[in-house]
Amino acid sequence: TNQWFLPAVRGDIPPGCAAHGFVCDGTRILVFGGMVEYGRYSNDLYELQASRWLWKKVKPQAPSNGSPPCPRLGHSFSLYGNKCYLFGGLANESEDSNNNVPRYLNDFYELELQHGSGVVGWSIPVTKGILPSPRESHTAIVYCRKDVGSPKMYIFGGMCGCRLNDLWELDIETMTWSRPETKGTVPLPRSLHTANVIGNKMYVFGGWVPQAAGGEISAPDGEWKCTGSFSYLNLDTTEWIGLISDCQEDKGNLLPGPRAGHCAVAVGTRLYIWSGRDGYRKAWNNQVCCKDLWYLDTERPLAPSQVQLIRATTNSFQLKWDEVPTVEGYLLQLHADSPVPPVAAIPAAGIPETSVLSSQGGCSLHQSPQSLPSVPYPEMKVDRPSQTNNLIPNNVQVALSSSSKVEGKEKVAAPENKVTQETMKNHTDATGFKESNAPSLLSVCTSSSQTSANVGELHDLDKQSVNPDASVSCTVSSSQTMVTQQAVKTESSSTNGAVVKDETSLTTFNSKSEAAETAYVMPSTRVSTEQTNDSHSSRAPQRPPAPVKTRDRRWYDVGIFKNNSAVVNQFYLLPEETLNINSKTEGADVPDYRLLKKQDLFPGTVYRFRVAAINGCGVGPFSKISEFKTCIPGFPGAPSTVKITKSVDCIHLSWEPPASPSGNILEYSAYLAIRSTQLQENPSQLVFMRIYCGLKTSCIVTAAQLSNAHVDYTSRPAIVFRISAKNERGYGPATQVRWLQDMKTSGSK
User: Fold this and answer.
1) Domain range 300-337+554-574+594-632, CATH architecture
2) Could you identify which of 239, 398, 424, 709 might form a hypothetical disulfide with 430, taking C-beta atoms 3.0 to 4.6 angstroms apart as the criterion?
């Protein structure tokens, strides 16, 4: 939402301070030192548990070989593993805070952390090599190459009476200091700048730099100014690359303005820059505090996960894929098995000449999501997001929707357990006009490639309910009691401040329908087909893979979506020449969908899907391909509102009839995932035993049946149930529910 909020913190709230050290370790934040008031510095250490907004003042043990760190400001405080590294800063030599006698420091401390919360104590490592000179307002980052090498800490710049631009390296394993030789143009000497690591690059932005011409290091009383210059150091090759120079003109306010004392944080491959102050040394009264937020996309996003099916109908799909962090949208494409008629070419004049989704590599820059001006450095992208809503630029068509919120938590005896329900809302595309058949967005659980089964999660408690939503995508006969399952994960969904992870599965049913033998089988999926009795399961011979025709695959755009889900009932028909280009290349410019014709989905048709993430640098690589089939009319929907009530020696399963029965419901079947030797051979495919068949919308699961249950460790341990309904045409899709288990007590279940 790009919206600030002020959390209600409690506990040992620290006093306000400036130029402190700050690290983030999971959901906790550690703050050390800083200036409490002019001339009075701190050496207190505070911990904030952000999951509870609880402050705690912690008291580390003193080092065995010296004194603990003295009060200071402008130091660096860097985290690697379970240790924080403190270097340098500025201390007050005078005991009188009104008489400030500055002393620059170059001492080095190590702080060992306890897991989750608390600290062990300070230590003073024995280092080799020449220590960096004393300084404050410098930066320190830790980088470790993935393939080879030990972690290294890099210190750059700072202040020691004059500004510095020297680079120091500490090998953390050997505790050896050195001065690496660098290539390229070294940034100007600076202090109060920021340095952040993304990939193998250290990005340095802003700070105070000398005002003197030529950038010479100034005398202690020299003039200096804020800068908006921006560079990075390739940490593998130690080469400096300048991105924005200090004299870069920015008449259109397309770049972050000069500033110092700002903050910057890397989230994935995106760098966020917030606030700071701008001014000159000789004009203290005219310094301005900034209130703008910018971000830099440093590279194209990674490929999302495979598209997953939530629900299929006769002419639509509800789809979902894992979120990619810090992206502006997703390009969803499909390929149809059935031939799609070509469309006459569209005049080129109708396509915008400037596209925000540049196919060039590297980073790229733009001022705001509302405009698309050209910029002087096309290899970068900086954006200033709206403070209320982060929208895609106007020439990128996006299906927008309100965030789906979890509703209807049922109060039960164990309040810490949660059940999620999600609802679908109407959607409007980015151009402002509604289309009843336009792709829309929905945050829900995901499920199968063949029989859509919405997946809920139930914790181990006395009574809970979940409202899953499901639909038919193939037919299942009444004698079917075994199915196979391939488990996958999805990203968590946020619910009123709490995070609830959705556990999902790709479920494949296969059987002969009482009406027609039309079930589509994915070639990579093994399916059990032998009829079984209600009270036991058996394995059946594998069905040979369905043949896949080799043909030229042409991909059609479904649209660009703001979130990681979509309702698909149409796709866009591109001109013939555009099709030929898009089938060969990825990352092509996105057309203006308002000028294109649409094609509806057909019943009983196989469609292939792929998705790519979009950020300021362009369209990233596509995901692996998924295949889904639209439904054949006439089969019932999936049961809903599944509830589990636990007794001493059994559990009680209940559910509500399908919202769309498509005729009279003749019976329901409930299944339990059980242990099997087949699971040992392929743990990703579950084996189910039918534990109930009848007209009632409830059943008892005995302790004997539960003792044979398989505990699925796809993510959190859970016992898996499926429930499906049958009408005159046959069985519809199953609703799958994961009953979460506390493994400390699961042995008694």
Assistant:
1) Sandwich (2.60)
2) 398
Helices H, strands E: what count in the chain?
Answer: 3, 49
Q: What is the pLDDT of residue 385?
A: 63
The CB density around residue 312, as the number of other CB atoms within 10 Å, is: 29
In this structure, what is the dihedral angle of CA atoms 692, 694, 695, 698, given to the nearest 10 degrees?
-20
**CA dihedral of 90, 93, 96, 97, whole degrees rounded to 10:** -10
Structure tokens at 420: 């999620």
For residue 658, give Cα distances in angstroms to 274, 412, 470, 576, 644. 50, 25, 9, 43, 18
Cα 277–chain centre separation: 31
560 phi, psi to nearest 5 deg: -110, 130
> Residue holding tokens 């288990």?
741
Most confident of 563-567, 572-576, 739-743: 563-567
Give the whole-angstrom CA distance, residue 458 versus residue 417.
8
Predicted confidence band at 495 (pLDDT cuts at 50, 70, 90)? very low
Distance (Å, whole) CA 569 – CA 571: 7
Pairing of strands 288-289, 293-297: unpaired
Domain ranges of the chain: 10-211+222-297, 300-337+554-574+594-632, 643-740
Measured over the CA atoms of residue 370, residue 376, residue 381 and residue 382, the dihedral's sign is: negative
In angstroms, the CA 489 to CA 506 distance is 10
The CATH superfamily holding the domain 643-740 is Immunoglobulins (2.60.40.10)
Of 387, 445, 452, which is closest to residue 421 (Cα–Cα)? 445
In DSSP terms, 622 is beta-bridged to: 612
CATH code at 10-211+222-297: 2.120.10.80
